[in-house]
Amino acid sequence: MDALERIDQFVKTNPVLIFMKGTPQFPSCGFSSRTAEALKACNVPFGYVNVLADPEIFENLPRYRDWPTFPQVYVDGELIGGCDITLELLERGELQPMVEQAVQKKAENSGTAS
């Protein structure tokens, strides 16, 4: 499987996903740190990919949705943007319902909703 296929699989299998430098617990850049903190503030589970640990993803992710920078946040399979956009959505109160809906939709589609 090539890098773009792997990226696509990550995006499609995680209702909320951040491609970042480092991990949510140990981010390796300020932008990734602030973006991960915004997602944590929503209190919903989210996936992450440490682009520094996978050179192929690091090289190919900017081509996936024509977004040149890291981090990149995907919700329900769609790129919502990077750090600034994610923080703006959080401040406007739009990030929380967006990620909650994506997680709920994934749970309903997998038959695990209660």
UniProtKB/TrEMBL annotation:
NCBIfam families, A to Z: Grx4 family monothiol glutaredoxin
Cited Gene3D superfamilies: Glutaredoxin (3.40.30.10)
Domain of life, source organism: Bacteria
One Pfam family named in its UniProt record: Glutaredoxin
UniProt cross-references to SUPFAM superfamilies, sorted A to Z: Thioredoxin-like
Single GO MF descriptor: metal ion binding
Start and end residues of each Glutaredoxin domain: 16-80
Protein known as: Glutaredoxin
Binding of [2Fe-2S] cluster, residues: C29
Family listed: Belongs to the glutaredoxin family. Monothiol subfamily.
UniProt keyword annotations, A-Z: 2Fe-2S, Iron, Iron-sulfur, Metal-binding, Redox-active center
